């Protein structure tokens, strides 16, 4: 295999996991899969985390791996896969508008690390409630918020018979966030279920139409961190109403606000008591002037509270 333009182009995109939409030869596909696996292994090892069976969920970023891959490892590195058979994957919709939650029509998600079959039985069960719509495959393939969790999940659960339940969370009203939380809460009480919630945190800069700056914190990036930390502290309380009020007051550009809110309502309405703890926070760059921009990444685990 040569090292021409195609290989160089593909290597430059591996951190953004654009592989499944490109036609490449088998040798190149194997090479990229190996590189991706090594990259994930490196981040997971560097996190130094101990796997725990008490970890039943994560909140993790979904930017390209060159930006958020290291931060995401602090969520996925906690997972003990031995007793998990089903993963509920909740991600926000970036390009497709719906006031509801949408289910995948796919039967399997393919990644360079391994395939993740869809749990069709649970999809049918959720569809039967009449509260979900079905997203087209084009919408499914275009949405990166869930896609970017797939390689990490395939890596951590490699060799284990796990299925996924992808749920695209649209621009859901506060009332419907609570409704979906109540509807999905019963799945939290099954110890074989796991929950992967996809979200980046503050998108700061004029290109995101968000330039809130509280100068009492010093540099702009410190103000951004303080704003994000306030949100993370509230999420850790598990109170969806407090999170709603925080978003209403500060309008922090947390793109996964709806999946996080649904997850908080799920925990609130389940009989299994869980606590959320953030373990890592990073920014894509440190903003120092109003011309700068950045995206924040935060990783958390949701553990059974003994």
Structural class, please?
Answer: alpha/beta
Helix % is: 40-55%
Question: What's the order of the H and E elements?
Answer: HHEHEEEEHEHHHEHEEHHHEE
Could you tell me the radius of gyration in angstroms? 19 Å
C-alpha termini separation: 54 Å
Query: Main beta sheet, described?
Result: 9 strands, mixed
Strand content: 15-25%
* Average predicted confidence as pLDDT: 92
Shape: globular
Number of helices: 11
Low-confidence stretches: 1-24
- Give the total of beta strands: 11
Organism: Rhododendron griersonianum
Family: Belongs to the MEMO1 family.
Protein name: Protein MEMO1
Summary keywords:
Protein MEMO1, disordered N terminus, 11 helices, globular, alpha/beta, 306 residues
Question: Summarize this, please?
Answer:
This protein is an alpha/beta fold. The chain has helices spanning 5-13, 26-47, 65-76, 120-127, 137-142, 144-147, 150-156, 174-188, 220-237, 240-250, 257-269; strands spanning 55-60, 86-92, 101-103, 108-110, 115-117, 132-134, 163-169, 193-198, 203-204, 274-283, 294-304. α9 (220-237) packs antiparallel against α10.
């Amino acid at each position: 295999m040569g090292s021409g333009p195609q290989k160089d182009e593909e290597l430059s995109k591996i951190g953004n996991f654009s592989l499944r939409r490109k036609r490449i030869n088998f040798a190149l596909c194997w090479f990229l899969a190996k590189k991706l696996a090594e990259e994930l292994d490196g981040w997971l090892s560097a996190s130094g985390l101990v796997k725990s069976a008490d970890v039943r969920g994560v909140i993790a970023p979904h930017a390209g791996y060159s930006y958020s891959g290291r931060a995401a490892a602090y969520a996925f590195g906690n997972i003990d896969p031995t007793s998990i058979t089903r993963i509920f994957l909740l991600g926000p919709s970036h390009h497709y508008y719906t006031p509801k939650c949408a289910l995948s029509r796919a039967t399997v998600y393919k990644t360079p690390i391994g395939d993740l079959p869809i749990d069709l039985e649970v999809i049918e069960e959720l569809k039967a409630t009449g509260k979900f719509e079905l997203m087209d495959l084009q919408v499914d393939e275009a949405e990166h918020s869930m896609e970017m969790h797939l390689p990490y999940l395939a890596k951590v659960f490699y060799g284990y018979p796990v299925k996924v339940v992808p749920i695209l969370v649209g621009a859901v009203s506060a009332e419907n966030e609570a409704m979906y939380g109540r509807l999905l809460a019963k799945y939290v009480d099954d110890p074989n279920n796991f929950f992967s919630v996809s979200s980046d945190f503050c998108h700061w800069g004029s290109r995101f139409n968000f330039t809130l700056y509280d100068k009492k914190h010093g540099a702009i990036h410190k103000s951004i961190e303080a704003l994000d930390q306030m949100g993370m502290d509230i999420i850790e309380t598990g109170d969806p109403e407090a999170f709603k009020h925080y978003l209403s007051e500060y309008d922090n550009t947390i793109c996964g606000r709806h999946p996080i809110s649904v997850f908080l309502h799920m925990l609130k309405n389940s009989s299994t008591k869980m606590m959320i703890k953030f373990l890592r926070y990073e920014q894509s760059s440190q903003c120092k002037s109003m011309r700068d921009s950045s995206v924040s990444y935060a990783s958390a685990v949701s553990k059974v509270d003994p």
